[in-house]
Design brief:
The chain is an alpha/beta fold. It is built from 10 helices and 5 strands. Helix 5 (162-171) packs parallel to helix 6 and helix 6 crosses helix 7. It is elongated.
Length: 288
């Protein structure tokens, strides 16, 4: 869609007003780009983007225009939009209106390291964008990633980082955090463990997610917990020593998965199965 076409602004405003009328109790409506790189390149949109040094320029101009119209009759409604991929970099001069919420997405980030780990080159860039949006918007919501879209069954080594990242978001105007995991799967890699850790850290920012993970393992796997904990310690040391920065599309090689590491990992779970003393614990270990 063209972000500077006045007809588009009016069409979207009317559609949004119709939606508000259907959902009067809803106070947050999303106007945002599609999940692709199909932004408008017309002369007017391109000029704004060039001036602002970001494709967020034309998009935020458009969202602000709609939000201004909505505010006249619905001042308590927030209009949210993404800062995602080509719009993640904040604009140079534009500010989000009071009733616009920026939903900042971390899809390019490294998930092994905490978002505010300045030793991580991928995450340093995100923090710079976060600092920029803090100056451009009153309200920020975070879209954070907690699964591997390349393969739901592959290890996703973020259990040490979750707590620190949530704490960072909370300290930087984070009104809320959406932790996107494998929402369309029920038996993905350590999903029970990760859901527990995410929930605990979201409920009380500042919790140590690694300690929460250890607690879950002891409670969930009982007498079989020790080998699973040994696996986690081994694997996280392996990734750390490799100096890699895996994200949510990491391949096997980027995750240090090879015949040798796979055999060793499988051995930890065989040990855990051998220690299980009840059908309940054995079923939990088998799922893990």
């Amino acid at each position: 869609l063209c972000m500077t076409n006045p007809d588009v602004i009016e069409i979207v405003t009317k559609a949004l007003l119709d939606q508000i009328a259907k959902e009067p109790s809803t106070k947050n409506f999303n106007i945002a780009q599609m999940d692709n790189t199909g932004y408008c390149t017309c002369e007017a949109c391109a000029a704004i983007d060039a001036r602002e040094g970001s494709h967020a320029g034309a998009t935020l101009t458009f969202v602000n225009a709609v939000a201004e119209r909505i505010e006249k009759t619905h001042p308590d409604v927030l209009i949210s939009t993404y800062a995602y991929q080509y719009t993640r970099k904040p604009p140079k001069t534009l500010h989000a209106r009071r009733n616009v919420m920026i939903q900042l997405c971390s899809i390019e980030c490294c998930d092994f390291h905490a978002i505010d780990d300045r030793s991580c080159p991928r995450n340093r860039i995100f923090c710079a964008d976060m600092d920029g949006w803090n100056k451009k918007a009153d309200t920020i919501f975070i879209w954070h990633y907690n699964t591997n879209f390349h393969g739901y069954m592959l290890p996703f080594p973020n259990l040490r980082a979750i707590g620190k990242s949530v704490r960072y978001f909370e300290r930087n105007k984070g009104r809320g955090v959406f932790m996107q995991a494998a929402g369309n799967g029920f038996s993905t890699e350590l999903s029970d463990l990760r859901n527990y850790v995410m929930s605990r850290c979201l409920w009380k920012p500042g919790r140590d997610s690694w300690k929460e993970a250890q607690e879950f393992c002891r409670l969930q796997y009982g007498e079989a917990a020790a080998p699973i904990l040994d696996y986690l310690k081994y694997y996280y040391r392996l990734v750390d020593a490799a100096g890699v920065h895996p994200g949510c599309f990491a391949t096997e090689s980027a995750l240090c998965i090879n015949p040798e590491s796979a055999r060793r990992i499988f051995a930890y779970f065989e040990q855990a199965l051998a220690l299980a003393q009840s059908d309940e614990v054995r079923a939990r270990v088998e799922k893990a």
